[in-house]
Amino acid sequence: MLQLSRRLLLGASSNIMFWSGLVGAAVFRRNIIVMLLCTELVMLACNLNFLYAAAYLNDMTGVIMSITITTIAACETAIGLALCVTYFHMRSSSDVEALNFLKAAKE
Amino acid sequence: MLMHNIIILDNLASLILLIVYSLFCIRYSLNNKPLKTSTNNPTYSFNKISINLRDVFMFAQIYPILFITGYIVEGFIYTNASGSFIDMVCTITPNVLLTNALDIGIVIIMIIVLRNFQTIESTILLLLAFINSYYMLHSVSLMSFYITLEGMNFCFIVLCGLQTINKGSNSFSVESTLKYFLLSAFSTGVLLYWFSYIYLQTGISVIHSSIYGITTLSINSGLDGGYMDPSHIGGSTAISTFTNTNTMEYFLIISAIMFKLGAAPVHLWVVQIYTAVKRSLLMYISTVPKIALFGFWTNSLHQLFNTGCSTGNTDSLNVEQFNVVSLYSVAIFVLFSIFIGSISAYNLPSLRALFAYSTINEIGILLMAIETAGFHSLYTHLSIYIISMLLLWNTYDKRFFTILAISLAGLPPLAGFFGKFVLFWYAGLTGAYTLLYASLLTTGISLVYYLRLIRLFWNKNHKNILPYNSFSSYIKVHASIANRAYTNLGYTNNIIQYVNINKTPYFTIPTQRFYLNSLCMVLIVYLPLFVIKPFIL
């Protein structure tokens, strides 16, 4: 069994990821691709939390939850990207106000 | 319990067969055209049997009834054998009959909603949404709650993004859908994070509301690799290892539920969706998820919000005796919702947005019911609200609309008054005076715009009725009565909405919709008799 300090560090990375994702979403509200990436970060962080908990508690529930979260996150990303694609198809490229994907690419 | 799960799996298998059959029909035959058509589109035939997508529709629109055939055959069952094969846990809840009634409610509403959709993909997505909401009602663990919640969200999001106006795609709806999608993704992410926190701290992820009267999170069983007899899973022993309810995790989990319900301050998606989506979808979103969420809440967390009134014992009615988290966590949402819902709706030129804010108002009052009045009065008002919504999104007639507006406003002879009356009565009885005063105030404030609508529809000269908005002089209010709801709110100041007050059709609507409208109106007018019966008899 690891020391308490080491055990706490194992859970730190996922928590940092989670809060980075939330703060990133709040800051980068104007860029839809970054928002989707932050969503994925949040999902992955929760996933890792569940796995950490499963390892700590020696219980299978966390692992099952992790698999389900992975699949649902994948579906979510697919839906988000499909919506983005339809949105970009409908709007002309010059009329993008809140979605600065093209501008970021040029810089 | 295992047999019950097999029946549920059977129903799901039928859905898969339905999807496969519909794909086969699309590939090989016509959709809804008569058999005598041009030679470009032949029907596929096996020994003079022709396949058509009409048959799939017919079955799909009746599919939800499969989920309640058990009640027809066996009667109402007293053990709420969990309908979710994901959980492997059996519960015995005090609110079993209520859950059964909510099942039937969801099924009936879905059958009504499904009649309004003409494409097979919409129908299948709605059936998936129905299945998710059905399982959410019967779900016991955090995992199944999360899965069903996400499933409902995804189905609705795809439906919103798919819709077209006049056979062309609509960027406004896709934009609103995108915003809703992002907000819901983050809310469920936060929910998951706190689930993982609870799981880490306690090792348990099942919410077990037992007949012993305590809400516990019971220890997981059956998933450690050993063999577990299915009859012994879950319900045999209620081990209370986590009864501390004064924690922030419950508050943060509840905030995710609040997001989906449409309570403030996480209400931003409601206005966007209500202005961008067609009415048949709004019929779904304003009724079914709310039933599912409130049902899940009562079945799992009801003991957290136990007050004297809900148990029937009116001796000790001081709310502070009970759980602190329950009162102060939900009261914030209540106050925000009712104030935002009533005050933001004042000078709106868009009727859809007005109905969105009235929804937020109603949800605030229902949340107030959870901590003061108990769940029976909550479901009374919720059912009245659902009848009002079914009428609202279906009505083409200004006479139906006036009765609906009076009911929503909460004026006496109709059902809306009695729903709110019971809730306010119990709020006063339990001592939640702040909430009571706030809700009464906001009900008075919201009366204005309901009654103004009635005047708007019945007066031909509408210039003196509408408010004057400084940023535009081209406002014409659009009634949900006309078939078109196109707004341009994001990019111009001209709010282009057309009015057809003088040309309101009276009886030019389809027959089934007329029956639905009439039924809802009759219920709104005569339901008070059943609500006031216990007070008089």
Automatic annotation (TrEMBL), chain A:
Protein name: NADH dehydrogenase subunit 4L
Family the UniProt entry places it in: Belongs to the complex I subunit 4L family.
GO cellular component: NADH dehydrogenase complex
HAMAP family registered for this protein in UniProt: NDH1_NuoK (MF_01456)
Keywords noted in UniProt: Membrane, NADP, Plastoquinone, Quinone, Transmembrane, Transmembrane helix, Transport
Molecular-function GO terms, alphabetical: oxidoreductase activity, acting on NAD(P)H; quinone binding
PANTHER family attached to this UniProt entry: NADH-UBIQUINONE OXIDOREDUCTASE CHAIN 4L (PTHR11434:SF16), NADH-UBIQUINONE OXIDOREDUCTASE SUBUNIT ND4L (PTHR11434)
Pfam families listed in its UniProt record: Oxidored_q2
From TrEMBL, chain B:
Main location (coarse class): membrane
Bilayer topology: Multi-pass membrane protein
Domain NADH:quinone oxidoreductase/Mrp antiporter transmembrane: 140-392, 400-446
PANTHER family associated with the record: NADH DEHYDROGENASE
GO cellular component: membrane
Keyword list, A-Z: Membrane, Mitochondrion, NAD, Translocase, Transmembrane, Transmembrane helix
Residue spans crossing the bilayer: 12-30, 51-72, 92-113, 120-137, 143-165, 177-200, 250-270, 282-305, 325-346, 353-370, 376-393, 400-426, 432-451, 514-536
Name the record gives this protein: NADH dehydrogenase subunit 2
Gene source species: Haematococcus lacustris
Subcellular location: Membrane
Gene: nad2
Entry-linked InterPro entries: ND/Mrp_TM (IPR001750)
